[in-house]
Amino acid sequence: MKKNHRKLLFVWIGHNDLRGMAKTLPPKKQQAVLDACPPGPPLDEIQSPIKVLVDQVSFDAIHLLSNCGAKLTGQFCRWLGSNAIAHPVKIANPTDYKGIFTVVDQELGTVLNERPNADAELCIHLSPGTPAMAAVWVLLGKSKYPATFYQTHRDRYWETEIPFDLAVDFVPELLRKPDAYWQRLASKSPQEIEGFQRIVGNSKSIRYVAGRAKRAAMRDVPVLLLGECGTGKELFARAIHQASHRKENPFVAINCGAIPKDLLESELFGHVKGAFTGAHKDKDGAFKTADTGTLFLDEIGELAPELQVKLLRVLQPLDLQTPWRREFSPVGGEAVIQSDVRVIAATNKDILQAVVNGEFREDLYYRLAVIAIKLPPLRERRDDIPLLAQHFLEEINQQFTTADEPGYKKKKFSDKAKKFLKEQPWPGNIRELYNVILQAMVMAEGSVLKENDFAAAIMEMPSFQGSLLDQPLGDGFKLSLLLDDIQRIYLRRAMTEARGSKTIASKLLGFNNYQTLSNQLERLNVRYDGSDD
After folding, report:
1. DSSP 8-state assignment for residue 331
2. Of 86, 225, 321, 397, which residue is most buried, by most CB within 10 angstroms?
3. Which of 274, 307, 267, 315 is nearest to 288 (CA)?
4. For residue 194, what pLDDT is reported?
5. Distance CA 443, CA 158 (A)
6. pLDDT attached to residue 291
7. CA-to-CA distance for 347 and 229, rounded, in angstroms?
8. CA dihedral 372, 378, 384, 389 (to 10 degrees)
9. What's the CA gap between 529 and 501, in Å, rounded?
10. SS3 assignment, position 255
11. Which of 400, 443, 447, 393 is nearest to 418 (CA)?
């Protein structure tokens, strides 16, 4: 029995398709369509690639993806014919492969997974749209959604044979081989990379991030560092500077979230005498101070909207020959100042969500995130915790010894203390780890740092409750694991305050009997004895 075979065409509406429609419209409507398109060839030389194909090949449904707005998309859909179906979508950048892929994958999946389309033949028209759009069509049409490809030129059409199959020819080979790109970037620990010696760790994730940062340092392109508070974004920014050809020149850091917004413009661009109350003399801003060097804009996500506009203007390249030369005027001044500055920005915000919410300019994001590097939280690089802890221990020992602190004895870790540190969730990341070790070293009486010293230090951290409650969801987050971590901390604290007495600790925790406490200590692998070792 013959199956119900349907041909479905998917295609982006291109500017030449809109111009092809426009030349068939009355003058007033024609001009309205042309105003929505960039300048192009004369209309008598234009034909709509989609129209050329559908006039010669019969399709049961024509699915039109369009980024030109619902009204214009609907107009084109009606012009093309009754079997045309409009899919108005939003693409921030027509050359953004990720954004295009997300949209196309979603639209194809939605249509093809409908029951009536189970036996449909997918057809894709490659000619309209940008090269990035065509590339995404090929990737999906040769793998996840097998398709027949069409192209057109003037009044001709043809089926396009693409002589490879991603799923058969390439993916199995890639799965058999180690990821060469990963291996290349993760081949060295940060301490082995020039400029990155201060970054401690040897995990795969930190090697990979350091490798990306090193490659970024070789060029003057802007870099956006992403990551939670305390992951070392400024340390990475300085490492990128030190690994670049600008390393002998200034590195200037500005915290956009710590400076009042009415003063931040002056901090960035400078001001002239009398520009505002308190401006008693001319002052150079960070862009001028960082000339020939690097400007690090921390907490860029906190930048006020009016300053986002001004920063965007400054980051606009003057010309292709000097793309990193910035042009600006100080507050209250008319003189135009130029400065050759490489910009590195950082934020702990979900900056893409801020763009969606209208809190951060999309065009500024693309100016800053030519290369985006996400730093891993400490919980994703637990193997680095002992290395970091030992590094901080030696650093603080050296500081206190050099400062000749009265009665200070060099400290070392007990074995249980090392294990305790590695097991903690560290919601405050590296900064929290450092502060806990510093507090324990100051408060401990003996020369051996024990598990109890760190448990007490963690409970005294001001950000303890807030940081635990601010854990990002997704990316491996499990509520049960977080709750277990919190219980471990309180169990250790209770046993410490009760000096090992389960009866007293049970009362401190509000348990009805010590057996409940014993069960929890066993389940969460919490151990206590007075000597700690």
Report:
1. B
2. 225
3. 267
4. 87
5. 79
6. 95
7. 9
8. 130
9. 10
10. strand
11. 393
Please count the CA atoms within 13 angstroms of the CA of 399 that sit on its side-chain side.
Answer: 9
Reference 198, options 164, 242, 230, 158; nearest CA is 242
Q: Minimal CA–CA distance to 161: which of 142, 176, 186, 179? A: 142
Residue with tokens 């854990």: 471
C-alpha 95/C-alpha 238 separation (Å) is 31
Instruction: Give strand pairing partners of 253.
Output: 296
Q: Give the Å distances, CA to CA, from 256 to 15, 38, 253, 290, 291.
A: 41, 37, 9, 16, 19
Tell me which residue of 265, 284, 262 sits closest to 273, measured CA to CA.
284
Q: Which residue has the tokens 């349907």?
A: 6
pLDDT at 465: 45
CA distances from 405 to 245, 394, 397 (A): 40, 15, 10
- Scan for tokens 């009415």, then name that residue: 262
Amino acid letter, residue 127 = S
Tokens found for residue 373: 């590097």
Full-prediction pTM beyond 0.85? Answer: no
What's the rounded Cα separation, in Å, for the pair 269 and 246?
A: 21
Q: Which residues contact 329 (CB under 8 A, 6 or more apart)?
A: 269, 335, 336, 337
Residues 236, 255, 280, CA angle at the centre, nearest 5°? 135
* Sequence-ordered list of residues with C-beta below 8 angstroms from that of 154, at least 6 positions apart, any chain: 47, 52
Q: Residue 303 has which token pair?
A: 């930048």
Q: Report the alpha-carbon distance of residue 356 to residue 372 in Å, rounded.
A: 18
The CA distance from 261 to 51, in Å, is: 53
Q: DSSP 3-state helix, strand, coil percentages of the chain (rounded to 5)?
A: 45, 15, 40
Q: What is the SS3 assignment for 10?
A: strand
Query: Please, which residues have CB within 8 angstroms of residue 206's CB and are 6 or more apart in sequence?
Result: 189, 190, 199, 376, 381, 384
Measured between alpha carbons, how far is 314 from 169 in angstroms, rounded to an integer? 47
CA distance 294 to 248: 10
Both ends of the chain: CA-CA distance in Å? 78
| Nearest Cα to Cα of residue 376 among 186, 222, 160 | 186
Q: Is 299 left (phi over 0), alpha (psi -120 to 50) or beta?
A: left
Q: Which two tokens stand for residue 139?
A: 């990737």
Residue 192 and residue 212: Cα distance in Å, rounded? 14
Low-confidence stretches of the chain (pLDDT beneath 50): 1-3, 167-168, 174-176, 178, 463-466, 531-533
